[in-house]
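Exercise 7b. Backbone tokens:
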């Protein structure tokens, strides 16, 4: 297939058949599957010691190992690292006049500059046996376990927001289109 002279890959047959949100934090897929996604901030590994990094690594390894032992092939785990070019615009307010002047002067050098932010995502896709409600309960347990274990990484569940935006769809759209 060619679009504007560029070779393209048809994706429709390669994508899962995404369904609809079944609750605020889960989306249905084809073939008795449901999914949920966690967004993580991560840690600044370049400036952390091995005494900090190794327990973090072990925590994630143990979490994924225990989920694999319990759910086996019923659970798929997708991970994504997304780097986005953003503009630095930040202001801070301090009570101290000295700190305010220092902050304003320091941030002035970076204001308007571009930088890359890094976002980490873990998606759990659960293939359930039985009813959708039973699958939802199982994935809810997985989500609670993972959220609790990963809370030190500023873990946030993607969900349908109060203004009816589906963060899952926005995330999946970004993966496919590389555009918000």
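Sequence design result:
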């Amino acid at each position: 297939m060619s679009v504007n002279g560029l070779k393209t890959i048809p994706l429709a047959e390669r994508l899962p058949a995404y369904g609809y949100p079944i609750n605020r934090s889960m989306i249905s897929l084809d073939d008795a599957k449901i999914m949920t996604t966690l967004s993580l901030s991560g840690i600044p590994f370049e400036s952390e010691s091995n005494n900090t990094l190794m327990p973090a690594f072990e925590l994630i390894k143990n979490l994924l190992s225990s989920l694999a032992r319990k759910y086996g092939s019923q659970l798929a785990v997708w991970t994504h690292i997304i780097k986005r070019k953003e503009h630095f615009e930040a202001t801070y307010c301090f009570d101290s006049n000295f700190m305010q002047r220092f902050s304003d002067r320091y941030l002035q050098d970076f204001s308007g500059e571009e930088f890359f932010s890094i976002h980490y995502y873990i998606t759990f896709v659960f293939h359930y046996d039985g009813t959708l409600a039973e699958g939802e309960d199982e994935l809810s347990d997985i989500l609670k376990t993972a959220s609790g274990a990963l809370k030190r990484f500023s873990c946030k569940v993607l969900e349908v927001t109060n203004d009816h935006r589906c963060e899952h769809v926005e995330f999946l759209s970004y993966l496919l289109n590389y555009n918000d």
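Instructor comment: The two ends are 25 Å apart (CA to CA). The longest helix spans residues 50-71.
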